[in-house]
Specification:
The protein is of the alpha/beta class and 263 residues long. It has eleven helices and nine strands. It has a single domain, classed as Rossmann fold, CATH 3.40.50. 43% of the residues lie in helices and 19% in strands. Helix 7 links the parallel strand 7 and strand 8. Helix 5 runs parallel beside helix 7.
Length: 263
């Protein structure tokens, strides 16, 4: 086929060395938010716990139609390089690739490869003193890592399961300000995230749920920041037919209008 000019996908890495901080919650909801605007989205699960993959299986089995997301159990590959190569081939033609990283040491080879392929890094942080202390160490190690320093990319922190504004979170924001890292959004401590996970959807897709609608602004803020930080770049590549069943189901205008109505 003739070569054509298309935009390369955004690779969004959701990472934190601290376990239990909500990486899977952020990754799945980010994927759902982008898919609901009609973009072609892939979700790469590198965590052996396979929570993201389980969420995707529930989504696929839903009777009610929702925007398609191409989920890959990337952790199952026999070798890291083979896994990355397979993931790239399987996700050709996607607009956005969300990567759910496991809790890794920044010195590990897998972490280095995930950082190397990323265009932007989202770090979920919870407000407990233990989580904030571990997250500060992770961010410091990331900023001084040789792979990151060779090609710095935007890092954004999101507060996860934030009930009230705490002194600990204020200290984290002060640390981030000194490091030049932005705090992008805060997601409330609400059962709606568990409800969404049980249904294989994102909160942005729960238009009939008041608690979910209260979260729309935070997710819109995060996706807007990612879009601003990672402008699409066009590359010449071989034209390929799109996979069957990946039809655009919801336009960006519809989601934006829903957000305005419920803001």
């Amino acid at each position: 086929m003739d070569s054509t000019k298309i935009s390369s996908p955004r690779h969004i890495l959701v990472a934190n060395g601290k376990g239990g901080c909500g990486k899977t919650t952020v990754a799945t909801n980010l994927a759902a938010a982008y898919a609901s605007t009609g973009q072609q989205v892939a979700l790469w699960d590198y965590d052996p716990q396979a929570s993201t993959q389980y969420w995707a299986e529930i989504r696929h089995a839903r009777e009610e139609a929702c925007a398609p997301i191409e989920a890959l159990a990337s952790f199952k590959g026999p070798r890291l390089r083979e896994t990355l190569s397979f993931s790239r081939r399987a996700s050709e033609g996607c607009d956005v690739i969300v990567i759910d990283a496991p809790s890794l040491s920044t010195a590990s080879a897998q972490f280095e490869n995930l950082v190397r392929m990323s265009d932007v890094i989202v770090v979920p942080v919870m407000a407990s003193s233990i989580d904030i202390r571990a997250s500060k160490r992770f961010i410091t190690d990331l900023l001084t890592h040789r792979i990151y320093r060779a090609r710095p990319r935007p890092i954004g922190v999101v507060g996860n399961r934030i009930a009230t504004y705490s002194a600990n979170y204020e200290k984290l924001e002060q640390f981030l300000a000194c490091s030049g890292i932005a705090t992008i959004s805060q997601f409330r401590d609400t059962p709606v995230y568990s409800e969404a996970a049980d249904q294989g959807i994102g909160v942005i897709e729960m238009s009939d749920n008041r608690a979910a609608r209260r979260e729309y602004r935070a997710w819109h803020t995060l996706t807007s920041w990612i879009d601003e930080q990672t402008p699409r770049q066009s590359t010449n590549t071989q034209a390929r037919p799109r996979a069957a069943g990946r039809k655009v189901q919801h336009g960006a205008e519809q989601i934006d209008q829903t957000h305005k109505n419920n803001a």
